[in-house]
Amino acid sequence: MNTSLNDTLPIGTTEKKSCCGACASKANSLNAHCGKIHSLEELTGENNDITNFKLKHWQLDSLIDYISEEYHECFYKHEPMISGMLHEIAVNSAVKHDDIYRLQLLFTNLKNIWCSHLLLEERVLFPYIKNMLDAKRTSSPPPCFCFITIDALVDVLQSEHVEIDGILETLKIITGNYTSHPHDCAKMRLVLHELKDLHYDMEKHLFIEKNILFKKAVLLEQELKSKTHV
Which of 49, 107, 128, 180 could be joined to 10 by an S-S link, Cβ 3.0–4.6 Å? Predict the structure, then answer.
């Protein structure tokens, strides 16, 4: 494609509203107990010490449930809508733009990597962590695991995080931080508004996993294995 990274695609500038709002009812009990994370700045900004203190003291199973309900389920809900609108724009636009096709291609790549990432967490990482918690609570031996250690799985997930970060940054750049042009249709404004929401939610998701979930899980495995060698 002939589009440079400095080219921009349209979107309206709107106040940030989490795309996970549609899933709020399922997460209400967790939010009431733990406190909802509204923005990445709550994790990385001036008040990050307070927020991280709260997060680090959640039980691992509660943290997993929060991530699953607040981020995984919302991605599954909103991805088909974004993909569908991008397809309609690409097919029905009176003027064919390389920018639109590139955006569609990037989002498809993001979707494929992210869906694989979520499945690996849901089918391998999360069950293993919960099995470890059960073993700790019942003073049982550590559960069997398909990876040598949880570190090996975390390495895989972290490498996917890096890849996802790169795609998100590219999306942000080629859309001019999701900024619209006056001539853009309503559907284009909506799809890029959704992309902006998704971008921020995925950043929060990645931050919580990298800085809290993964570290706590590794420490839990080390604790269980050390007890078996005593």
Answer: 180
Note the Cα 42 to chain centre separation in Å: 16
- Count of C-beta atoms within a 10 Å radius of residue 139: 7
Comparing 145 with 191, the larger pLDDT belongs to 191
Tell me: the pLDDT tens digits for 68-79? 998 999 899 999
- CB-based contact 24:70 (threshold 8 Å): no
How far apart are the C-alpha atoms of 187 and 226, rounded to whole Å?
56
Distance CA 183, CA 162 (A): 35
SS3 151: helix
The CA R_g of the chain, rounded to the nearest whole Å, is 20
Q: Which two tokens stand for residue 71?
A: 């981020």
> Helix, strand or coil for residue 116?
helix
Contact 210, 161 (CB under 8 A): yes
Rounded Cα gap, residues 55 and 49, in angstroms: 10
Instruction: Look up the pTM and report it.
Output: 0.75
